[in-house]
Structures are given as structure tokens and as C-alpha cells.
């Protein structure tokens, strides 16, 4: 049986609700079961890649979850170019050790190529 392709879309900012954390945990759970998904950061989800001091707002830092992704086989993160531009984020300031960051001009076209899409 051919393996289905999976895309996890992270749309929410890292703090303020649990959706970003739940999305990253779902990605790690999929990868742990050898169902390595692709990941797309779009809308406020692009804030996940910024270094932030979560302790100042009483939250756990999600950076550790992100840095674990390459160890679980998620070696590429896709970023929506428009989302970065709208939030004033320069892609040159973003990095994730062990992972490649790919900027997408047409995320809709990218999303349509997957069998299953998880949205957080």
C-alpha cells in the first residue's frame, strides 16, 4: 500500500493558545510513527521561527520542539513568503539548525499536492 503524503500547516502564533504546540506535537508524533510529514508555517505560524523569551509571558518555549524536528526526519520547513512580508520578518534572520527553510510564493499550489492536510 503506498504511503500517503501528509502536510501539517501551522497557522497560529507560538503563544496565546495551544494550537501551535499541538501542531508541533502532532508533527513529532507522526514522525515517530515513520509518517514524516511536510510542515508549512503560514500566517502567524511564521512567528514560530523567531527567538522569543516565552518565560516573560509565563509560557514554555516552543523552540525545543522545533529543534527536535530534524532529529525526527523533518528536515525541511516551508514558509509562506507573503506571511513573512506581512509581518515584517526578514527570511535572512530565520534559521533552524539541521533544517532547510524553503520560501513558498504559492502555498495553495503546494498544499494541493498532499493526500492529507492537518491544520493547526
Written account of the structure:
The chain is α/β, with parallel strands linked by helices and 120 residues long. 26% of the residues lie in helices and 19% in strands. It has four helices and five strands; from the N terminus they run βαβαβαβαβ. The chain has helices spanning 19-32, 63-68, 81-86, 107-111, and strands at residues 6-10, 38-41, 76-80, 100-104, 116-119. Strands 4-3-2-1-5 form a five-stranded parallel sheet.
**Series of H and E elements:** EHEHEHEHE
The number of helical segments is: 4
Helix-strand makeup class: alpha/beta
Cα end-to-end separation:
28 Å
Mean pLDDT: 91
Low-confidence stretches: none
Largest sheet: 5 strands, parallel
The total beta strand count reads 5
Approximate strand percentage: 15-25%
Instruction: Bin the helical content.
Output: 25-40%
Strand order of the largest sheet: 4-3-2-1-5
Q: Report Rg.
A: 14 Å
Shape: globular
Short description:
Helix content is 26%, strand content 19%. It is α/β, with parallel strands linked by helices and 120 residues long.
Amino acid at each position: 500500500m503506498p504511503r500517503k503524503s501528509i502536510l501539517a500547516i501551522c497557522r497560529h502564533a507560538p503563544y496565546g493558545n495551544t494550537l501551535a504546540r499541538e501542531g508541533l506535537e502532532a508533527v513529532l508524533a507522526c514522525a515517530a510513527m515513520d509518517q514524516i510529514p511536510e510542515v508549512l508555517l503560514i500566517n502567524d505560524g511564521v512567528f514560530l521561527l523567531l527567538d522569543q523569551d516565552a518565560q516573560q509571558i509565563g509560557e514554555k518555549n516552543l523552540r525545543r520542539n522545533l529543534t527536535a524536528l530534524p532529529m525526527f526526519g523533518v528536515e525541511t520547513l516551508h514558509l509562506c513568503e507573503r506571511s513573512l512580508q506581512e509581518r515584517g520578518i526578514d527570511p535572512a534572520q530565520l534559521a533552524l539548525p539541521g533544517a532547510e527553510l524553503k520560501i513558498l510564493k504559492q502555498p495553495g499550489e503546494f498544499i494541493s499536492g498532499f493526500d492529507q492536510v492537518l491544520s493547526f
